[in-house]
Amino acid sequence: ASEQYKGSHFVEFISHSDTWSALYQDVFRANPLANEVLTTTMVLLAGTVDFVSVGVYDDVNGWTGNLPIEILEGPGHYVGIAGGVGQIHGLSKITPTIIKFTTTFNYPSSNLGALYIYPGAAAHAEIGQSIKVTRVQVEDGYESTEYIKTSDSIVTVKSHKLQAFLVEPERTNYSSSSQ
Description:
Layout (H helix, E strand, L loop, with lengths): L3 E2 L2 E2 L1 E4 L6 E6 L10 E10 L4 E7 L11 E5 L3 E6 L2 E5 L7 E8 L9 E6 L10 E11 L26 E2 L2 E2 L2 E4 L1
Antiparallel strand pairs: 1-2, 3-12, 4-11, 4-15, 5-10, 5-12, 6-9, 6-11, 7-10, 8-9, 13-14
């Protein structure tokens, strides 16, 4: 049986590189403006490692503004930023951890912003390291709303610039990146 959180299946992401290896999705369809804010929430389980690195990145702003990561529910603790990416340690293989963080773009950008999720340390992954993720939601502004399973309904968001990060088995659009 696959692991689920409130009916949403977890996707296990396994690193295929010993350097940068991430699950990522472009979350902007258009250019972010200066001072634009995104709020990201997701549900995590440990895989082969019990920590994860997450953040939103674009070529103009870099990793700026990914502070702090708040644990809304479950085990784990925020250990700060490493290379601009926030880290949560102490994930459980059984009890889900729900996290939330905001990203503020300091400068306008002509590039797409992308959400990255790394098993373990972002720049120091080991081949085979994994974490499990579900219910990833990126929204405009400081507040997050209740998760909407995109395969069951049409989702309307405040900004037409955002696109979903879909990890549901019926609809996936994320990519994996290894360097």
